[in-house]
Amino acid sequence: MSQVNAGGLLAIDTSGPVAVIRLARPAKRNAINDALIAELHTTFINLPEHVRAAIIHAEGDHFCAGLDLSELHSRTVAEGIVHSRSWHAAFDQIQFGKVPVIAVLHGAVVGGGLELASACHIRVAERSTYFGLPEGQRGLFVGGGGSARVPRLIGVSRMADMMLTGRILSSEEGLATGLAQYLVEPGEGLAKAHALAERIASNAPLSNFAVMHALPRIADQSQSDGLFMESLMAAIAQGDQAAKDRMTAFLEGRAGKVKA
């Protein structure tokens, strides 16, 4: 059963192998304030050991409308840097934390909401979803990791277009450009995410860890360095007992073959 955490901004269910975290500020379009970013950080640090995958979704008509601008005006430059780094720490814990994370997107996925979504490993978009980076129109710059993550999904030129012109991408455009990997009808996102998360949770934990932690780092390296790191990770993964048990099951005909 889901429980609303002490801050009242997240509903969290960690009773099974798939943790479900729901943003719970629908009246604010799930805009991210300081308390919410802290709660996200704490939640992902403290995921129980039995959790093997996680889902982030949101109440109301929108996934997340970005930064709660009501908290922005009072910060000094130094405070702004600290604030940005707090977002980096929280989203790093999602991207490079304990388990793969799936985001279920609907309605607005803009600004900090897109930064949050881009920190997740898989994104399922419902057809109501739209993507935007309005910071450029507001005299701001992304501060929650968007400049590092979003260009890796859609390229620098597309992100620049969104920030300079205020261009909004539809769910179909988001799928085509890489902001989402799956597109489903309204109301079907959570079920799709659960199906994906259950499949992910059944993988060997070390394989999931390698995909989460090694793959993006290899992609950032030179080809020579990346290939060497790949060899190390492949040897570590195949030496794990869970991998050996799965290979034995496959060779003995007890595991399914790859099918379209």
Question: What does this protein look like?
Answer:
By secondary structure, the protein is an alpha/beta fold. The chain has two domains: 3-201, Alpha-Beta Complex (2-enoyl-CoA Hydratase, Chain A, domain 1), CATH 3.90.226.10; 205-251, Lyase 2-enoyl-coa Hydratase, Chain  A, domain 2 (Orthogonal Bundle). The chain has ten helices and ten strands. It has a seven-stranded mixed sheet with strand order 1-2-3-4-5-7-10, with helices on both faces. A three-stranded mixed sheet has the order 6-8-9. Strand 1 and strand 2 (10-13) form a beta hairpin.
Structural key phrases:
single chain, 260 residues, alpha/beta, 2-enoyl-CoA Hydratase, Chain A, domain 1, Lyase 2-enoyl-coa Hydratase, Chain  A, domain 2, 2 domains, 7-stranded mixed sheet, 3-stranded mixed sheet, 10 helices, globular
Radius of gyration: 19 Å
Q: CATH top level of the largest domain?
A: Alpha Beta
The outline comes out as: globular
Residue windows where pLDDT falls under 50 for at least 5 positions: none
Order of strands across the biggest sheet? 1-2-3-4-5-7-10
The appropriate CATH architecture of the largest domain is Alpha-Beta Complex
Offer a concise description of the structure.
This protein has 260 residues and is an alpha/beta fold. The chain has two domains: 3-201, 2-enoyl-CoA Hydratase, Chain A, domain 1; 205-251, Orthogonal Bundle (Lyase 2-enoyl-coa Hydratase, Chain  A, domain 2), CATH 1.10.12.10. It has helices at 34-45, 77-95, 112-119, 146-154, 156-165, 171-177, 189-201, 205-220, 223-239, 241-251, and strands at 3-4, 10-13, 18-23, 53-58, 101-105, 108-110, 122-126, 130-132, 169-170, 182-184.
